[in-house]
C-alpha cells in the first residue's frame, strides 16, 4: 500500500466550486435579509411612520447595490427609478434615486435585479395602502363632520319648532284664554242678575276655556319642561282616564331625565298614539302606557284594546305616505337615530313602540 497522501481528483476545481456555492449562498442570504427586513417594516408602517420606513427601505437598496445613499422623490420628478402602485399598469407614485444606478437594467445579476424589483413592488404597495387609508380617514372625518353639522342643524330645527310652540302656547294662555275666562265671569254675573239669554252662554264660554287649555297643553305641556317625560306621560294617562279609559301606567326609572330633544320626540310620539286611540278605539277601552327611561335604548310603548283601525289604515299604516301622523312620528324618531313600530289589528287595537338611543342628539 502506498504511503502517498490521498488526493481528490481536480482539487482546484472542487475548491473553486465550493467557493462559488458559498458566494451564491451568501448572496441569497443577503437578498432574503433585504426582503425580510424591509417587508417587516413595510407591513407595520402607518401614516405617521411611512416616510421614515420608505427612506430606510431605499437606503437598504442603496447598500444592496453598493451605493452609499438613496433618495425617495415625488412621482412627477423627471429622474429616478419608478415606484408603482400595485396591479397591471400601476401608476407611478414615487421615484427612487440611487447615485450611479439609472435603472433596474443596470444591475448585472438577475437574482439581485429580481430582489430589487420585489422590494420596489413592496414599497409601492405600502405607499398605495397608506394613501388609501389616508383617503378613507379623510372621508370618515368629513362624514363625521357632516353628521355633526346635521345634528346641530337638527337640534336647531327642533328647538325652533318647540320654541314656536312655546310662544304660541304662552300667547294663547296670556291672551285668548284670559279673555275667555273674563267672558265666563261676566256671563256668570249676568246670569245671576237674570240678564242671560239664549242657550247657556256661560257653558259655551266654559267649553271654550277648556278647549283652549287643551290646545295649550298639546302645544307644549309645562310638565315636560318642569318635571320631565314621565310626568308628561302621566298627564296623558290622566286625561284618558277622565274620558273613561282604563289606563295602566308602567314608567320605569321615572326620575330619569333625558335630553330635551329626546324627551320632546318621545312625548310627540305619545301624543300621536293617544290621538290615534281617540280616532280608532271606538270609545273607552283599556290602554297601556309603558316607558323604560333608564334603558338604552329608551323604550316607549302605548297600546290600546279598542276596536282598531280601519282596513285601509291597517293595510297601509306601516308604509310611508298613507298615514301622516305615523309618518311624522317616524321622521322625528329617525332624525334622532330611533325607530317607531306601528301595529294595528281589527278588534285588538293599535300598538305603537318607539326606541331611541340614550346618546341621541339633544
Structural features, described:
- Its EC number is 2.7.13.3.
- Residues 167-360 form the Histidine kinase domain.
- One of its GO terms (cellular component) is membrane.
- Residues 120-163 form a coiled coil.
- The protein has helices at 11-44, 50-64, 110-192, 201-219, 222-226, 229-242, 260-280, 311-316, 324-335, and strands at residues 71-73, 81-84, 92-97, 246-252, 286-292, 298-304, 339-345, 349-356.
- It has 362 residues and is α+β, with helices and mostly antiparallel strands.
- It folds into 2 domains: 13-137, Beta-Lactamase; 221-362, Heat Shock Protein 90.
- The strands form 2 sheets. Strands 4-5-6-8-7 form a 5-stranded mixed sheet.
- β2 (81-84) and β3 (92-97) form a beta hairpin.
- The model is unreliable at 317-322 (pLDDT under 50).
Keywords for this entry:
362 residues; alpha+beta; Beta-Lactamase; Heat Shock Protein 90; 2 domains; 5-stranded mixed sheet; 3-stranded antiparallel sheet; phosphorelay sensor kinase activity
- The number of distinct β-strands equals 8
Mean pLDDT: 81
Which stretches are poorly predicted, pLDDT < 50 over at least 5 residues? 317-322
Number of helices: 9
Helical content class: 55-70%
Under the CATH scheme, which architecture of the largest domain would be assigned? 2-Layer Sandwich
CATH class of the largest domain: Alpha Beta
> Strand content of the residues, in percent?
5-15%
